[in-house]
Write a structure and sequence with these properties.
With 736 residues, the protein is mainly β. The chain has eight helices and 43 strands. It comes from Acidobacterium capsulatum.
């Protein structure tokens, strides 16, 4: 997934907060202006106080509560005229300006009765700055007493500040005791650039009592915050994404920033002047070679070939445009340098392709010839060195190695580790012609994909990164898209490396393999994220009555009759982890009976199996949820059975527009069993939502649609726009 960057500033990645599409922060508003009674209607809004990272929905209603046909417009405001006052759609969705000239801006929005503009009502909205992108770094690992410099960019020009603090939680509400210290806070203000604030964080002398330290940035002391997650260790390990985003010069290492030199959007002013509006980029993933020994850089189509919009021979830059202020090589002030040329790509529009992949030829001396990737090597003086992956065609996934720790080295989040959560995944991914994702291009369905769990394993800009087995440095796939629900659940999508190499080999007419070492080596595993679905849910009181009814049912009594006496240690009301918002009948069993046959449903309610002891049940100390090892752990027979059921139902399920993907995973209600994983788009309801299919448990995970360009957490559609026109010199000529 590659990020986009606004104008020649930092990327406009606008979803730092777990908000829905429309702003819910702040109190809603009512437009009872003095002329409302004369106009015969009033305006309501979902919020009257919002940040530039949010939108609000406005409605025009008669005094009897009926919708009124109106024409919306932004009348005026006190933002700088060069930055604008934002825009409003015909449906009443207001989008704030991309930048503000002060800490608080007031904008007046008007609704005029369609056909009678003399009947109009206005409402005032208060807008304060948000963040341009996540904090840099988003994630980091520090040893005791080490330090890092963090930065935040806010959507304010010429003013503004950031209040920094430490917390034991991402919301900024936890304790700060023993978490380290903050010093040297400062902000830089510019007339035509976003305000940038920095701070130095120093790790404590001893390990904190909490799993992670959160560095919190608050815009102008408001509730608009952004967190950076920092892991503290006592074995001398330091890792941040800074090196992955830097200019490297000659013999550049893989795992760093890169992309097509033409991968930007332009904006034309009413006066006819054109400027760069935003830009994209990703990760230079790995080195591959053909049968003749010629080497190429491997990455995604949407990184190197602009989602089929590029031309063979286009220049590939290092770093990518988003790390070079969106200034391409045609501008003499650029920081970028060419490392290669687009050699081949697999068209996303072709039904015969099943991976998002491209190759670049290499300019002489531009890339490290060993295929070394940033931070894959051993620790030296507190820093992870670079190292090549294992050479060859990569590792074959099979049940015996599903539980492996996997690792990737990418532009945005650097070195991160997680586990496989689903295989044989059929998934729908949307592609666009532009960085801002305003021009739809292709909705492509991929088959046989790999899913990696964890909200911090990848993010925008990590597209193209090689995903490896952390135990031996063998490649297993290439990251290309990600999705989350803003509530801790996230999946990273990975093309299997065998498919990537095979399809590209057919495209260039020669077999390809990864360039690397013949000797396996372990890779440091830095695990930032929480596994999806592992949190203990709250049990609504109303479910307890439903579970009592299940226990009294004839079906449950028949189950007990078939069960060996003493096998069931106890029961309780629970919440299903396979389908949130549904009750579950918890069945406590001993380790000796952990594999006993248990129906997936009893009297229409899901069962949840928890292995424990009779003493724990008697003392009320039984676990609240099933214990599941990280990663995917399925037997070959269980996998084959689940795959056969998936093959029978996937096509029909994918016809439902609410469903994003279908694959094979592990049940969270009974981790010893496989489950059919169904990915549902947040805010949509599938036509059918069965708890089982052909006896196989069905697990549902709600995610926003998968992104390949914008940050996967981003929720609002951001139109391509040049918020600070005039940034470019008059002599520079942008691409049309």
């Amino acid at each position: 997934m590659k990020p986009r960057k606004l104008s020649h500033l930092w990327p406009r990645l606008l979803s730092l907060l777990p908000l829905g599409l429309l702003a819910l922060a702040g109190c809603g508003g009512l437009g009872y202006s003095p002329d409302a009674s004369q106009a015969g209607f009033f305006i309501t809004s979902t919020a009257s106080d919002l940040s530039t990272n949010q939108q609000v929905s406005l409605s025009a209603l008669s005094f009897s509560g009926e919708a009124v046909p109106v024409v919306w417009s932004v009348k005026d405001g006190d933002n700088a005229s060069t930055l604008g006052e934002g825009r409003i759609s015909a449906k009443g969705i207001y989008t704030p300006p991309n930048a503000l000239s002060r800490n608080l801006v007031t904008v007046k929005v008007s609704a005029a009765w369609r056909g009678d503009p003399s009947r109009s009502v206005s409402i005032s909205l208060r807008i304060h700055p948000g963040f341009v992108q996540p904090l840099l770094p988003e994630v980091a690992t520090l040893s005791l007493r080490s330090s890092l410099r963090a930065s935040a960019q806010i959507t304010e020009v010429g003013a503004g500040s950031v209040n920094w603090s430490l917390s034991s939680d991402a919301a900024g509400t936890g304790s700060s005791s023993g978490l380290g210290a903050l010093t040297a806070s400062s902000c830089e203000h510019f007339d035509q650039q976003y305000t940038t604030c920095t701070v130095t964080y120093s790790a404590p002398a001893g390990l904190p009592s909490v799993p992670a330290v959160y560095l919190i940035a608050a815009v102008n002391g408001t509730q608009t915050i952004a967190p950076s997650r920092i892991l503290i260790n006592d074995h001398g390990l330091n890792s941040t994404p800074a090196a992955h985003q830097a200019v490297q010069g000659k013999h550049a290492l893989l795992g760093g920033s890169g992309g097509n030199d033409n991968d930007y959007d332009t904006y034309t002013t009413p006066a006819g002047k054109s400027y760069i509006a935003d830009c994209c980029g990703g990760t230079l993933g790995a080195l591959v070679k053909d049968a003749a020994g010629q080497k190429f850089i491997l990455s995604n189509n949407h990184v190197f070939a602009e989602s089929d919009q590029a031309k063979i021979g286009d220049v590939i830059d290092q770093p990518g445009l988003m790390d070079g202020a969106c200034i391409p090589l045609s501008d003499a002030s650029t920081r970028l340098h060419a490392v290669g040329r687009l050699r081949a790509y697999l068209p996303l529009s072709a039904r015969s392709t099943n991976v998002d992949a491209a190759l670049a030829s290499i300019d002489p001396g531009a890339i490290n010839s060993s295929g070394a990737i940033l931070e894959l090597g051993p620790l030296h003086d507190g820093i992870l060195t670079s190292a090549p992956p294992m050479a060859g065609e990569g590792e074959t996934l099979e049940p015996d190695n599903f539980g492996m720790p996997v690792v990737k080295s990418g532009r945005t989040t650097g070195l991160t580790c997680s586990h496989i959560s689903a295989v044989d995944l059929t998934v729908k991914v949307n592609y666009y012609k532009d960085c801002a994702e305003t021009q739809p291009y292709e909705s492509k369905i991929f088959h046989g994909q790999i899913a990696i769990e964890g909200a911090d394993f990848t993010d925008s800009g990590d597209s193209g990164a090689l995903v490896l087995d952390a135990r031996n440095a063998e490649g297993i796939g290439m990251y290309f898209a990600g999705g989350t629900n803003g509530d801790g659940d996230a999946l990273s999508l990975v093309n299997p490396i065998h498919d990537v190499l095979s399809e590209l080999s057919g495209e260039i007419g020669s077999p390809l393999q990864l360039v690397g070492t013949a000797k396996p080596h372990p890779i440091a595993c830095i695990h930032y994220g929480q596994a999806a679905g592992r949190r203990t849910p709250v049990i609504p009181e109303i479910w307890r009555g439903r579970i009592q009814a299940v226990l009294a049912s004839a079906e449950y009594q028949e189950f007990l009759h078939r069960t060996r006496p003493g096998a069931i240690l106890g029961t309780a009301a629970g919440a299903s982890l396979d389908e949130r918002g549904r009750p579950a009948l918890i069945l406590y069993v001993s380790a000796a009976h952990s594999n006993m046959p248990i129906p997936s449903l009893i009297d229409g309610v899901r069962t949840q199996v928890i292995v424990t002891t009779s003493a724990a049940v008697a003392q009320g100390k039984a676990p609240g949820a099933p214990a599941a090892p990280e990663g995917l752990h399925l037997s070959a027979s269980s996998l084959a059975h689940a795959e056969s059921i998936a093959q029978q139902h996937t096509r029909q399920l994918m016809r439902d527009p609410a469903i994003l993907g279908v694959g094979v995973a592990q049940s969270l209600d009974r981790p010893s069993e496989a489950a059919l994983l169904v990915l549902v788009e947040v805010g949509r309801i599938p036509r059918h939502q069965p708890a089982t299919l052909d006896g196989l448990r069905v697990r549902y995970l709600h995610l926003r649609r998968f992104h390949v360009t914008r940050e996967r957490h981003e929720q609002r559609p951001i139109p391509s726009s040049c918020s600070l026109s005039g940034m470019r010199s008059e002599t520079w000529k942008p691409r049309n």
